[in-house]
Amino acid sequence: MVPASEAKHDKNVSFDIGATTNSRKTWELVDKWVNNCLANHQHCNYSESPNFLPSRLLAIDNTGQPKSFRLITSSECPINTRYMTLSHCWGAKPIERKLRLLKSTFKQLRDGLPIDGLPKTFREAVAVTTRFNIKFFWIDCLCIYQDSPEDWRVEASTMQQVYRHSFLNISALGASNDDEGLFHERNPAHIAPTIVQLKRKRDCEPEPYLFVLEKYGAWRLTFEMEPIVKRGWVIQERLLSPRVLHFGRKQLFWECRQQNACEIHPEYVYHFANVHEHHGDRENLEKAKKPHLWKQLLDVQQRVLVDDPYQQLFIDWNTVLHAYSACVLSVSNDKLVALSGLANDIKHALGTLRPGPHRYLAGLWEERLQEGLCWCVYSGSRPASYRAPSWSWASLDGKIVVESITSLTTESISLLEECNAETDVLDGQETGQVTGGRLFAKGSWTMVRVCGEIDDRHGIQRQLQHFVHPVTREKAESENVSRWHPTAFYDTRDETPDEMFCVPIRLLPLEKDLLVVSALLLARTGENNEEIYRRIGIIYVYFESTEIVREFFAQFPMKSLVVV
């Protein structure tokens, strides 16, 4: 508990909450956020291509009756056109009953339709757009042909620009479908921080207090439970848009490059307080002031700041990947496409820092390939159709645990003599869909035996019993290994064959006298003794020294193999 008198004088704790998210009080705060961002946020208002426009937009006409909208092309827009975008959940309604841009609906959308005929979420989003005196709006299902794979691929490749150059992205945070709308009624007493009267001593008068949770982190509960947060495409939409206004069921939230806030914390959310002078050290403050590739999202792990901008890119990528992998996609094959805009950003940024092709390999980066292979998935499942090679996290559905910040900033030791990869991409888009991929590796080649039942409390795992020489089939000397309880983490419950192989990738120091080896767990897929394998999991083995590691794996033959 903290004294309520402190909270009442704290400009970042608001008790003035309206009875609806469309109240006058709410819009006064929204105007403050927007105007402050436009006037004072240099990083939010920079654009490399200020004249960019999407291929198609919805033009809003509020002059006639009924008020209407129509589909137009970018060539019909005046110079310096500003537009807004929408992030929304499509919902479970049959797709045939939704208004979409189709070859059969093009003419009626082109001629114009009444705004009142739109789903509630779209109608209210148009009202928000009009409130900012903006006459053009972009909604995915009305601006991209939904029955043309060719048009979808073309437009998907420019998605990063569509959101990046939007004046403001409206997020229908609290709507699970397009009929629920943006605005919600609420009980202000359930949203505003709660004051309780407590006696510090038995013979004292009661004094007002505020729960610490409500001062510092209660906003998270009203954000993370909202429907749109787990939609895969929305991660990219939020990161790329200069400004995002979230319409939640309980309150509104604001995200831009230089401010994250909500109605009960109108200045900033305390979760990220370490970037503010009075909460963080000066070193972190200066790092936080530097422009970063993307904004800090409200519900994503707080950005770890390092001095090396090249290293920072991979840290930011892994942070986003961790959050993205926990999201859901309506179309399974969008796994890489829905992240392609962010991958293009990273590729461009890497190129400005260091020369090189900076190849993107089905979700992994060539210059961090060995680190990128060391992912683990909790309760993974494979999609029905091919999406990525087995060594890529994109081949699975499920929350991915990627390399920790420690492992990215600590010098690791490669245990492979060779390691490279290639992918087959669709339509020449390196960061888009892939149709195949191969990992070429040369290193110590072993077989492994596991024991015990599968433990799926923290991933699908089993205890590693011992290593086996793949040629002689003799149990390897493993006195220095078994006492550290090496563990095999399977990618899925369905892929646990009796014959499994292992190739150590790299060695990472954790602390004094403790190192961990990450190794791919493989199953043979090639016929006629071809050395072709697929990944089925990852193994972590702990050692006390580099010398013990090298001595242990020297027992096994070197092997060149292909993982698909």
From TrEMBL:
Superkingdom classification of source: Eukaryota
Record organism: Lojkania enalia
Annotated protein name in UniProt: HET-domain-containing protein
Domain Heterokaryon incompatibility: 83-237
InterPro entries linked: HET
